[in-house]
Design brief:
- Helix 7 (162-176) links the parallel strand 5 (152-157) and strand 6.
- The protein is α/β, with parallel strands linked by helices.
- The chain has helices at residues 16-19, 21-25, 32-53, 73-87, 100-110, 141-150, 162-176, 190-207, 212-216, 224-238, and strands at residues 59-63, 91-94, 115-120, 134-138, 152-157, 185-188, 218-221.
- Helix 4 (73-87) runs parallel beside helix 5 (100-110).
Length: 255
């Protein structure tokens, strides 16, 4: 009987992932040439993100489900939030996709503000929404996450799935470990978020895996207006945002 060739990390031998760049990288050690090319692709994408987003001004990142459309009440809240942030002088930064992300970008544009998306290449392509003044598409999730954090004075989450949970808990971890400053993490919608906070209080806290300060990092509000007010207060009083002159472009850097 003919035997299948051995594989690593559980990927079948004929898997498209096993032949592709990301999947092959995760299969384990590769040739030095492959590893070098991968590192250069990562650096090129990282530098491209920095160049594309360098002149945005102060941002607020909004997270939420791509699956909640205009028929969801949370779409309206995200749209209102985007407009309020734009009127307060912030650039609205999202993952650039549909649903809650689209709503926040749409609200920002309608209010005359700057609307930016950090989109991601997926096997099932996620097309950028139609309400973006600027869009940057990334291949690597970890670079996209850096960009969504790097330029923001606050983070707002409306109802979302695994991606939204991943993003808000990663930011909370960065704050907990002192890797970034104590920027606000605001959750809109108690009906959705309160059970999560309750679970943390009744399960994680007694187990000693977190402390009260970790729970307190998540601020629960019902109103987009209250979220904007809280963000303005933190940005100006706590972090010294003054809305001064923006960075100048340098022609010799092709900016």
């Amino acid at each position: 009987m003919k035997r299948s060739p051995p594989t690593r990390r559980g990927l079948p031998a004929d898997s498209g992932e096993s032949r592709g760049g990301n999947g092959r990288f995760l299969e384990g050690p590769q040739g030095r040439g492959f590893e070098l090319r991968h590192a250069l692709r990562v650096m090129r994408e990282y530098m491209g993100g920095l160049r594309a987003l360098h002149f945005l001004g102060p941002c607020v990142t909004v997270f939420g489900s791509a699956r909640l459309g205009e028929d969801s009440p949370y779409y309206g809240l995200a749209r209102e939030l985007g407009a309020g942030l734009a009127r307060a002088g912030f650039t609205v930064l999202t993952g650039g996709g549909p649903g809650i992300m689209e709503a926040a970008n749409r609200g920002a544009q309608e209010a005359g503000g700057m609307s930016v998306g950090c989109n991601i290449e997926l096997p099932r392509e996620q097309a950028p929404n139609a309400h973006l003044d600027r869009v940057v598409t990334f291949r690597y999730f970890f670079i996209r996450k850096v960009m969504l954090v790097k330029y923001s004075y606050a983070f707002v989450a409306l109802p979302g799935g695994l991606g939204t949970f991943d993003e808000i808990f990663e930011i909370a971890t960065l704050i907990q470990t002192g890797k970034v400053q104590d920027f606000p993490i605001i959750l809109i919608g108690s009906a959705y978020w309160q059970p999560l906070l309750d679970m943390m209080t009744v399960a994680l806290l007694p187990a000693g895996t977190i402390d009260e300060a970790d729970i307190a990092r998540f601020e629960l509000v019902e109103s987009p207006a209250l979220a904007v007010e809280r963000i303005q207060e933190a940005a100006t009083r706590k972090f010294g945002l003054t809305y001064g002159p923006r960075l100048r472009r340098r022609w010799f850097l092709w900016e």
